[in-house]
């Protein structure tokens, strides 16, 4: 990707899922870069899955920030 942004992929699958939604989001800006879904979903189900993907991508991005700060504490302190 350009401009130093990274992609976080998040997927939501239930234990007995007949449908699924996978989204890719930029870690440097809001919004969905791409979304792939399979199966039949109501609008409500789609947006519930999309929100769960958003929360998952935020958790993954936070995890990577923590790992980076632990790995390079002096560089992170100046930000």
What does this protein structure show overall?
This protein is of the alpha+beta class and 79 residues long. The chain has one domain. The protein is 43% helix and 25% strand. It has 2 helices and 3 strands; from the N terminus they run E-E-E-H-H. A 3-stranded antiparallel beta sheet has the order 1-2-3, with helices on one face. A hairpin with a 5-residue loop joins strand 2 (20-26) and strand 3. The chain is elongated, with a radius of gyration of 15 Å. The model is unreliable at 1-6 (pLDDT under 50).
How many helix segments?
Answer: 2
Structural class: alpha+beta
Q: End-to-end distance, in Å?
A: 23 Å
Average pLDDT, all residues: 75
Biggest sheet, spatial arrangement of strands: 1-2-3
Share in β-strands: 25-35%
In sequence order, what are the helices and strands, one letter per element? EEEHH
The oligomeric status of these chains comes to: single chain
Q: Which shape, going by the Cα principal axes?
A: elongated
Largest sheet: 3 strands, antiparallel
Radius of gyration: 15 Å
Low-confidence stretches: 1-6
């Amino acid at each position: 990707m350009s401009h130093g942004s990274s992609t976080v992929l998040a997927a939501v699958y239930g234990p007995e899922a007949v449908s699924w939604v996978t989204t890719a989001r930029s870690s440097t800006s809001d919004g969905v870069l791409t979304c792939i879904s399979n199966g039949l979903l109501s609008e409500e189900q789609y947006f519930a899955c999309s929100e769960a993907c958003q929360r998952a991508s935020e958790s993954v991005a936070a995890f990577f920030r923590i790992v980076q700060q632990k790995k390079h504490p002096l560089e992170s302190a100046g930000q």
